[in-house]
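Comment on the following before class.
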Amino acid sequence: MICRAGSRVWLKKALIAAALVATAAAGRRARADWKDANSTSLKQHLVNLENVVEACRKARNASACDPSLVGPDDNLRWNVNTTTLSREIRYDWLRDLLDQAGKKEAATPQSTSILPQVDVIQRKPATIDEQLGAAIDRLKDEESQVDALTGPSQAVSDSAAERKKLTEILSRRAYQGINQSTARNRFWEWFDNLINRLMGKLAGFGGKARWLPWLLMGLLIGGVLLGLAWALIQIERRSRIRLIPEITGMSGAPSAREWQLWLKDAQDAAARGLWREAIHFIYWAAISRLESRRLWPADRARTPREYLLLLPSADPRRDNLTTLTRSFERTWYGGREAALTDYEAARALAAGLGVE
Protein backbone atom coordinates (compact mmCIF):
# COMPACT_ATOMS: atom_id res chain seq x y z
CA MET A 1 0.00 0.00 0.00
CA ILE A 2 2.87 2.33 0.81
CA CYS A 3 4.42 1.58 -2.55
CA ARG A 4 1.21 2.33 -4.39
CA ALA A 5 0.80 5.65 -2.54
CA GLY A 6 4.39 6.60 -3.40
CA SER A 7 3.77 5.73 -7.05
CA ARG A 8 0.72 7.97 -7.15
CA VAL A 9 2.64 10.89 -5.67
CA TRP A 10 5.46 10.38 -8.16
CA LEU A 11 2.98 10.17 -11.06
CA LYS A 12 1.28 13.39 -9.95
CA LYS A 13 4.61 15.23 -9.76
CA ALA A 14 5.55 13.94 -13.22
CA LEU A 15 2.27 15.19 -14.72
CA ILE A 16 2.74 18.62 -13.15
CA ALA A 17 6.29 18.86 -14.47
CA ALA A 18 5.16 17.83 -17.94
CA ALA A 19 2.41 20.48 -17.87
CA LEU A 20 4.92 23.15 -16.88
CA VAL A 21 7.29 22.13 -19.66
CA ALA A 22 4.46 22.16 -22.19
CA THR A 23 3.34 25.59 -21.02
CA ALA A 24 6.86 26.99 -21.32
CA ALA A 25 7.24 25.50 -24.78
CA ALA A 26 3.91 26.97 -25.85
CA GLY A 27 4.98 30.34 -24.50
CA ARG A 28 8.20 30.16 -26.50
CA ARG A 29 6.28 29.22 -29.63
CA ALA A 30 3.75 32.02 -29.07
CA ARG A 31 6.56 34.46 -28.46
CA ALA A 32 8.22 33.34 -31.69
CA ASP A 33 5.15 34.60 -33.59
CA TRP A 34 5.95 38.16 -32.48
CA LYS A 35 8.52 40.50 -33.95
CA ASP A 36 9.92 43.59 -32.27
CA ALA A 37 9.61 46.64 -34.51
CA ASN A 38 10.31 50.35 -34.50
CA SER A 39 8.28 53.01 -36.27
CA THR A 40 10.14 52.63 -39.58
CA SER A 41 9.96 48.83 -39.81
CA LEU A 42 6.31 48.82 -38.68
CA LYS A 43 5.27 51.29 -41.37
CA GLN A 44 7.15 49.23 -43.99
CA HIS A 45 5.36 46.08 -42.78
CA LEU A 46 1.99 47.83 -43.03
CA VAL A 47 2.77 48.96 -46.58
CA ASN A 48 3.69 45.37 -47.51
CA LEU A 49 0.42 44.14 -46.02
CA GLU A 50 -1.50 46.70 -48.08
CA ASN A 51 0.17 45.32 -51.22
CA VAL A 52 -0.69 41.74 -50.18
CA VAL A 53 -4.36 42.63 -49.64
CA GLU A 54 -4.50 44.51 -52.95
CA ALA A 55 -2.97 41.53 -54.81
CA CYS A 56 -5.43 39.17 -53.12
CA ARG A 57 -8.29 41.47 -54.06
CA LYS A 58 -7.30 41.27 -57.73
CA ALA A 59 -6.38 37.57 -58.03
CA ARG A 60 -8.75 35.98 -55.53
CA ASN A 61 -6.95 32.62 -55.38
CA ALA A 62 -5.31 30.54 -52.64
CA SER A 63 -1.79 31.53 -53.69
CA ALA A 64 -2.35 35.30 -53.66
CA CYS A 65 -4.48 35.12 -50.49
CA ASP A 66 -2.19 32.86 -48.46
CA PRO A 67 -2.50 33.84 -44.75
CA SER A 68 1.21 33.09 -44.25
CA LEU A 69 2.03 36.18 -46.34
CA VAL A 70 0.93 38.31 -43.38
CA GLY A 71 3.96 37.31 -41.36
CA PRO A 72 4.35 37.59 -37.57
CA ASP A 73 2.54 40.10 -35.40
CA ASP A 74 4.40 43.29 -34.51
CA ASN A 75 5.50 44.48 -31.08
CA LEU A 76 6.14 48.20 -31.50
CA ARG A 77 8.67 49.72 -29.08
CA TRP A 78 9.57 53.39 -28.61
CA ASN A 79 11.16 55.60 -25.96
CA VAL A 80 9.61 58.56 -24.15
CA ASN A 81 12.33 60.35 -22.20
CA THR A 82 13.81 57.47 -20.15
CA THR A 83 10.79 55.17 -20.38
CA THR A 84 10.40 52.39 -22.97
CA LEU A 85 6.84 51.83 -24.14
CA SER A 86 5.41 49.05 -26.28
CA ARG A 87 2.25 48.19 -28.17
CA GLU A 88 1.24 44.83 -29.63
CA ILE A 89 -0.34 44.88 -33.10
CA ARG A 90 -2.10 41.64 -34.06
CA TYR A 91 -3.09 40.54 -37.55
CA ASP A 92 -5.34 37.56 -36.78
CA TRP A 93 -8.26 39.39 -38.35
CA LEU A 94 -6.28 39.83 -41.58
CA ARG A 95 -5.23 36.18 -41.71
CA ASP A 96 -8.84 35.05 -41.33
CA LEU A 97 -9.94 37.47 -44.04
CA LEU A 98 -7.26 36.26 -46.49
CA ASP A 99 -8.19 32.66 -45.74
CA GLN A 100 -11.83 33.40 -46.63
CA ALA A 101 -10.84 35.38 -49.71
CA GLY A 102 -8.75 32.45 -51.04
CA LYS A 103 -11.81 30.19 -51.03
CA LYS A 104 -14.76 30.28 -53.35
CA GLU A 105 -17.43 32.61 -52.08
CA ALA A 106 -20.66 31.03 -50.94
CA ALA A 107 -23.62 31.53 -53.21
CA THR A 108 -25.87 34.42 -52.31
CA PRO A 109 -28.96 33.05 -50.54
CA GLN A 110 -32.18 33.30 -52.52
CA SER A 111 -34.73 35.71 -51.16
CA THR A 112 -38.02 34.25 -49.99
CA SER A 113 -39.64 37.60 -49.31
CA ILE A 114 -42.69 38.76 -51.20
CA LEU A 115 -40.89 42.05 -51.77
CA PRO A 116 -37.37 41.12 -52.90
CA GLN A 117 -36.15 44.72 -52.93
CA VAL A 118 -37.04 45.18 -49.27
CA ASP A 119 -35.37 41.88 -48.36
CA VAL A 120 -32.14 42.94 -50.10
CA ILE A 121 -32.10 46.21 -48.18
CA GLN A 122 -32.64 44.43 -44.88
CA ARG A 123 -30.20 41.55 -45.51
CA LYS A 124 -27.17 42.61 -47.52
CA PRO A 125 -23.94 41.22 -46.01
CA ALA A 126 -20.66 42.80 -46.96
CA THR A 127 -18.88 40.95 -49.76
CA ILE A 128 -15.29 39.70 -49.49
CA ASP A 129 -14.23 42.40 -51.93
CA GLU A 130 -15.72 45.08 -49.69
CA GLN A 131 -14.07 43.56 -46.64
CA LEU A 132 -10.68 43.58 -48.38
CA GLY A 133 -11.17 47.26 -49.25
CA ALA A 134 -11.98 47.99 -45.59
CA ALA A 135 -8.85 46.06 -44.56
CA ILE A 136 -6.69 48.32 -46.75
CA ASP A 137 -8.26 51.39 -45.12
CA ARG A 138 -7.59 49.93 -41.66
CA LEU A 139 -3.92 49.28 -42.49
CA LYS A 140 -3.50 52.81 -43.80
CA ASP A 141 -5.08 54.17 -40.64
CA GLU A 142 -2.64 52.14 -38.52
CA GLU A 143 0.23 53.53 -40.61
CA SER A 144 -0.91 57.12 -40.11
CA GLN A 145 -1.05 56.60 -36.32
CA VAL A 146 2.51 55.35 -35.95
CA ASP A 147 4.17 58.79 -36.02
CA ALA A 148 1.55 60.27 -33.67
CA LEU A 149 2.09 57.38 -31.26
CA THR A 150 5.88 57.32 -31.28
CA GLY A 151 6.45 61.08 -31.39
CA PRO A 152 5.34 62.38 -27.94
CA SER A 153 8.14 64.93 -27.78
CA GLN A 154 6.58 66.87 -30.63
CA ALA A 155 3.18 66.71 -28.92
CA VAL A 156 4.74 67.89 -25.66
CA SER A 157 6.43 70.81 -27.39
CA ASP A 158 3.21 71.76 -29.16
CA SER A 159 1.32 71.59 -25.85
CA ALA A 160 3.96 73.72 -24.14
CA ALA A 161 3.77 76.31 -26.94
CA GLU A 162 -0.02 76.44 -26.69
CA ARG A 163 0.16 76.78 -22.91
CA LYS A 164 2.68 79.60 -23.21
CA LYS A 165 0.49 81.41 -25.72
CA LEU A 166 -2.59 80.99 -23.53
CA THR A 167 -0.70 82.32 -20.49
CA GLU A 168 0.42 85.34 -22.50
CA ILE A 169 -3.16 86.10 -23.55
CA LEU A 170 -4.52 85.77 -20.00
CA SER A 171 -1.82 88.11 -18.66
CA ARG A 172 -3.23 91.05 -20.62
CA ARG A 173 -5.10 93.82 -18.83
CA ALA A 174 -8.47 92.85 -20.30
CA TYR A 175 -8.28 89.46 -18.58
CA GLN A 176 -6.95 90.59 -15.20
CA GLY A 177 -8.97 88.98 -12.41
CA ILE A 178 -10.92 86.73 -14.77
CA ASN A 179 -8.74 83.68 -14.28
CA GLN A 180 -9.12 83.90 -10.48
CA SER A 181 -12.15 82.02 -9.15
CA THR A 182 -13.40 83.41 -5.83
CA ALA A 183 -15.11 81.35 -3.15
CA ARG A 184 -18.36 83.12 -3.92
CA ASN A 185 -18.19 82.18 -7.61
CA ARG A 186 -17.36 78.57 -6.73
CA PHE A 187 -20.31 78.44 -4.34
CA TRP A 188 -22.77 79.79 -6.92
CA GLU A 189 -21.36 77.41 -9.54
CA TRP A 190 -21.87 74.50 -7.14
CA PHE A 191 -25.38 75.71 -6.29
CA ASP A 192 -26.25 76.10 -9.98
CA ASN A 193 -25.00 72.59 -10.74
CA LEU A 194 -26.99 71.24 -7.80
CA ILE A 195 -30.17 72.89 -9.06
CA ASN A 196 -29.54 71.53 -12.56
CA ARG A 197 -29.05 68.01 -11.22
CA LEU A 198 -32.20 68.24 -9.11
CA MET A 199 -34.21 69.56 -12.04
CA GLY A 200 -32.84 66.81 -14.27
CA LYS A 201 -33.81 64.12 -11.75
CA LEU A 202 -37.20 65.76 -11.26
CA ALA A 203 -37.78 65.83 -15.02
CA GLY A 204 -36.80 62.17 -15.30
CA PHE A 205 -39.07 61.24 -12.42
CA GLY A 206 -41.88 63.33 -13.90
CA GLY A 207 -41.80 61.23 -17.04
CA LYS A 208 -42.58 58.16 -14.94
CA ALA A 209 -45.00 59.76 -12.48
CA ARG A 210 -47.65 61.59 -14.50
CA TRP A 211 -49.22 62.98 -11.31
CA LEU A 212 -46.11 64.96 -10.32
CA PRO A 213 -46.65 67.94 -12.71
CA TRP A 214 -50.22 68.31 -11.49
CA LEU A 215 -49.03 68.23 -7.87
CA LEU A 216 -46.43 70.93 -8.52
CA MET A 217 -48.99 73.06 -10.34
CA GLY A 218 -51.40 72.70 -7.42
CA LEU A 219 -48.70 73.72 -4.93
CA LEU A 220 -47.81 76.74 -7.07
CA ILE A 221 -51.42 77.89 -7.35
CA GLY A 222 -51.95 77.30 -3.61
CA GLY A 223 -48.87 79.37 -2.77
CA VAL A 224 -50.06 82.23 -4.96
CA LEU A 225 -53.52 82.17 -3.34
CA LEU A 226 -52.03 82.16 0.17
CA GLY A 227 -49.78 85.10 -0.68
CA LEU A 228 -52.74 87.00 -2.11
CA ALA A 229 -54.84 86.30 0.99
CA TRP A 230 -52.00 87.48 3.28
CA ALA A 231 -51.63 90.70 1.26
CA LEU A 232 -55.40 91.38 1.46
CA ILE A 233 -55.35 90.83 5.23
CA GLN A 234 -52.51 93.31 5.62
CA ILE A 235 -54.33 95.90 3.51
CA GLU A 236 -57.51 95.42 5.54
CA ARG A 237 -55.62 95.84 8.83
CA ARG A 238 -54.00 99.08 7.69
CA SER A 239 -57.34 100.41 6.47
CA ARG A 240 -58.94 99.52 9.79
CA ILE A 241 -56.25 101.44 11.67
CA ARG A 242 -56.81 104.55 9.54
CA LEU A 243 -60.60 104.41 9.74
CA ILE A 244 -60.91 104.53 13.52
CA PRO A 245 -64.15 106.19 14.72
CA GLU A 246 -63.87 109.36 16.76
CA ILE A 247 -63.58 108.40 20.41
CA THR A 248 -62.46 110.14 23.55
CA GLY A 249 -58.72 109.98 24.00
CA MET A 250 -57.42 107.37 26.41
CA SER A 251 -56.15 108.81 29.69
CA GLY A 252 -52.36 108.94 29.60
CA ALA A 253 -52.13 108.67 25.79
CA PRO A 254 -50.35 111.48 23.88
CA SER A 255 -53.61 112.48 22.22
CA ALA A 256 -55.20 112.99 25.67
CA ARG A 257 -53.17 116.20 25.76
CA GLU A 258 -53.48 118.55 22.83
CA TRP A 259 -50.45 118.83 20.62
CA GLN A 260 -50.46 122.63 21.02
CA LEU A 261 -49.75 122.21 24.73
CA TRP A 262 -46.82 119.87 23.97
CA LEU A 263 -45.51 122.49 21.52
CA LYS A 264 -45.83 125.29 24.11
CA ASP A 265 -43.85 123.21 26.64
CA ALA A 266 -41.16 122.70 24.02
CA GLN A 267 -40.92 126.41 23.32
CA ASP A 268 -40.68 127.20 27.03
CA ALA A 269 -37.90 124.63 27.51
CA ALA A 270 -36.00 126.00 24.49
CA ALA A 271 -36.27 129.53 25.89
CA ARG A 272 -34.50 128.35 29.03
CA GLY A 273 -31.84 126.45 27.05
CA LEU A 274 -33.11 123.00 28.03
CA TRP A 275 -32.60 121.45 24.62
CA ARG A 276 -33.11 117.80 25.65
CA GLU A 277 -36.46 118.60 27.25
CA ALA A 278 -37.42 120.74 24.27
CA ILE A 279 -36.77 117.84 21.83
CA HIS A 280 -38.72 115.54 24.19
CA PHE A 281 -41.79 117.83 24.07
CA ILE A 282 -41.46 118.34 20.30
CA TYR A 283 -41.53 114.56 19.73
CA TRP A 284 -44.68 114.04 21.79
CA ALA A 285 -46.30 117.01 20.11
CA ALA A 286 -45.77 115.25 16.77
CA ILE A 287 -47.17 111.95 18.14
CA SER A 288 -50.23 113.74 19.59
CA ARG A 289 -50.78 115.53 16.27
CA LEU A 290 -50.69 112.25 14.27
CA GLU A 291 -52.84 110.43 16.81
CA SER A 292 -55.45 113.17 16.71
CA ARG A 293 -55.79 112.48 12.98
CA ARG A 294 -56.94 108.91 13.74
CA LEU A 295 -53.86 107.26 12.24
CA TRP A 296 -53.87 104.66 15.03
CA PRO A 297 -55.84 103.87 18.18
CA ALA A 298 -54.71 105.57 21.39
CA ASP A 299 -52.49 103.46 23.62
CA ARG A 300 -50.48 104.84 26.52
CA ALA A 301 -48.20 101.77 26.68
CA ARG A 302 -46.93 102.10 23.10
CA THR A 303 -43.16 102.72 22.56
CA PRO A 304 -41.67 105.18 20.04
CA ARG A 305 -40.60 102.30 17.78
CA GLU A 306 -44.12 100.88 17.81
CA TYR A 307 -45.50 104.26 16.77
CA LEU A 308 -43.05 104.23 13.89
CA LEU A 309 -44.20 100.78 12.75
CA LEU A 310 -47.82 101.92 12.61
CA LEU A 311 -47.09 104.20 9.66
CA PRO A 312 -47.07 102.34 6.31
CA SER A 313 -43.79 102.36 4.43
CA ALA A 314 -45.45 104.21 1.56
CA ASP A 315 -46.65 107.07 3.81
CA PRO A 316 -44.68 110.26 2.95
CA ARG A 317 -44.58 111.24 6.65
CA ARG A 318 -42.67 108.09 7.63
CA ASP A 319 -39.21 109.52 6.85
CA ASN A 320 -39.74 112.63 9.01
CA LEU A 321 -41.09 110.56 11.90
CA THR A 322 -38.16 108.10 11.64
CA THR A 323 -35.55 110.86 11.83
CA LEU A 324 -37.39 112.63 14.67
CA THR A 325 -37.69 109.36 16.62
CA ARG A 326 -33.95 108.70 16.33
CA SER A 327 -33.11 112.22 17.50
CA PHE A 328 -35.49 111.87 20.47
CA GLU A 329 -34.04 108.44 21.45
CA ARG A 330 -30.42 109.65 21.25
CA THR A 331 -30.98 112.72 23.42
CA TRP A 332 -33.64 111.49 25.86
CA TYR A 333 -32.92 107.78 26.35
CA GLY A 334 -29.30 107.76 25.22
CA GLY A 335 -28.28 110.68 27.44
CA ARG A 336 -26.62 112.55 24.59
CA GLU A 337 -26.19 116.31 25.05
CA ALA A 338 -28.36 118.41 22.74
CA ALA A 339 -27.80 121.85 21.27
CA LEU A 340 -29.76 124.57 19.53
CA THR A 341 -29.12 122.99 16.13
CA ASP A 342 -30.57 119.69 17.32
CA TYR A 343 -33.71 121.43 18.56
CA GLU A 344 -34.12 123.40 15.33
CA ALA A 345 -33.75 120.20 13.27
CA ALA A 346 -36.38 118.45 15.42
CA ARG A 347 -38.67 121.51 15.11
CA ALA A 348 -38.39 121.39 11.29
CA LEU A 349 -39.18 117.65 11.22
CA ALA A 350 -42.21 118.16 13.47
CA ALA A 351 -43.41 120.98 11.19
CA GLY A 352 -43.43 118.44 8.34
CA LEU A 353 -45.76 116.32 10.47
CA GLY A 354 -48.20 119.16 11.04
CA VAL A 355 -46.81 120.62 14.27
CA GLU A 356 -46.52 124.33 13.42
